Amino acid sequence: MQNFLIRVLINAVALWAAAGLIDGISFGDDDAWTSKVVTIVLVALVFGLVNAVIRPIAKVLSFPAVVLTLGLFTFVVNAFMLQITEWIADPLGLAFTIDEFWWDAIFGAVIITLVSWLLSVVLPDGDD
């Protein structure tokens, strides 16, 4: 359970960093920081569930493209997971939007990957 909470917080920080660095990714128009924090954590939870359920299937189906591009297609798969998160967040009433797939979602996936990796190295994961 502790590992799951750490992963959700890492995803939340990574999503917040991507939204801060890329104009096309946003968490609603509300200026109240408390509602933004709650939205970011809930979107991080959805993002974690999408990565746990859909990403393994997408990785298997995209394996030939990943091999042909020497792993660079992984960023497209990650961007697709981010786009699916947006599609799921909308009916749930979470104000999470991505303007363009090819620019905003791809660069957002790169930022999320880098921030998640960095925080995973720094923070304990509970497996030790």
Automatic annotation (TrEMBL):
Keywords: Membrane, Transmembrane, Transmembrane helix. It comes from the Bacteria. Pfam families: Phage_holin_4_2. The chain crosses the membrane at residues 34-54, 61-81, 101-123. The keyword Glycoprotein does not apply. This is Membrane protein.
